[in-house]
């Protein structure tokens, strides 16, 4: 696979090795920003891929009290639900050394959509304007965060100047809240965490496709992306 100069691919032999190397890398970047600015902002993704990395990162010794942690997207479900991304972070990352991290969830229990969106945007104001690290995932349709090619909201989300927006995918369950592309790109480093041969195939398809509408992950290629992958 031929990679543009802005993309670096780190390949590992197994998923645990990849998760540990990624946790070390993230912790290093957070330490740098903690030293420079006294605080650091970390955005994580959900789904199944990041769980071993969450566990490894929770063991890292750093000044977690000054690390603000949130998500690139979440399914609009209470954290107790098995499909909640928040639930995975709470269960696997916010423990051990990371218990003291400053967690900023996207989900809130407001019953009206407008109120829920307003509360989520208000919460996200706590994040530093420039994030330290954004860890993205990718689905086999080329979606990242909850920027789904199938969703009718996508054109509006590309142009949004807000921190987050609603998305309703038609090819995946649950209404979602996603950070907008402009919020995700206000970051020192973007990382894509992938596992499995199928994700590598999707990546190479995205590298050949120049339509971000068809494969939203493309939008993050030119600004620089570090990929951690294991079979
Ligand atoms: O729906 C989602 O999917 C992607 C990829 O998930 P995975 O299970 O294939 O790792 C994820 O990055 C995103 O946060 C999530 O909401």
Can you tell me the number of structural domains?
1
Helix-strand topology string: EHEHEEHEHEHEEHEHE
CATH class: Alpha Beta
Describe the sheet with the most strands: 7 strands, parallel
The N- to C-terminal Cα distance equals 15 Å
Beta content: 15-25%
The side-by-side strand order for the widest beta sheet comes to 1-10-9-6-2-3-5
Mean pLDDT: 97
The appropriate CATH architecture is 3-Layer(aba) Sandwich
**Strand-pairing-aware structural class:** alpha/beta
Query: Which bin fits the share of residues in helices?
Result: 25-40%
Q: Given the C-alpha coordinates, what overall shape results?
A: globular
Number of helices: 7
Bound molecules: ligand LXAUTJHC
Family: Belongs to the glucosamine/galactosamine-6-phosphate isomerase family. 6-phosphogluconolactonase subfamily.
InterPro entries: 6-phosphogluconolactonase_DevB, 6PGL, Glc/Gal-6P_isomerase, NagB/RpiA_transferase-like
Pfam family, one: Glucosamine_iso
Keywords: Hydrolase
Descriptive keywords:
Rossmann fold; binds ligand LXAUTJHC; seven-stranded parallel sheet; three-stranded antiparallel sheet; alpha/beta; 7 helices
What's this, in brief?
With 231 residues, this protein is α/β, with parallel strands linked by helices. 32% of the residues lie in helices and 21% in strands.
Report on the structure:
This is 6-phosphogluconolactonase. The chain is an alpha/beta fold and 231 residues long. It has a single domain, classed as Rossmann fold (3-Layer(aba) Sandwich), CATH 3.40.50. Helix content is 32%, strand content 21%. It has helices at residues 15-37, 51-57, 85-92, 113-124, 154-159, 181-185, 197-208; strands at residues 7-11, 40-44, 67-71, 73-75, 102-103, 131-136, 164-167, 176-179, 187-195, 225-230. The strands form 2 sheets. It has a 7-stranded parallel sheet with strand order 1-10-9-6-2-3-5, sandwiched between helices. The protein has a 3-stranded antiparallel sheet with strand order 4-8-7. Helix 1 (15-37) packs across helix 2 (51-57). The longest helix has 23 residues, at 15-37. The two termini are 15 Å apart. The mean pLDDT is 97. The structure holds the ligand O=C1O[C@H](COP(=O)(O)O)[C@@H](O)[C@H](O)[C@H]1O. Ligand LXAUTJHC binds at residues 45-49, 72-73, 85, 137, 139, 146, 172.
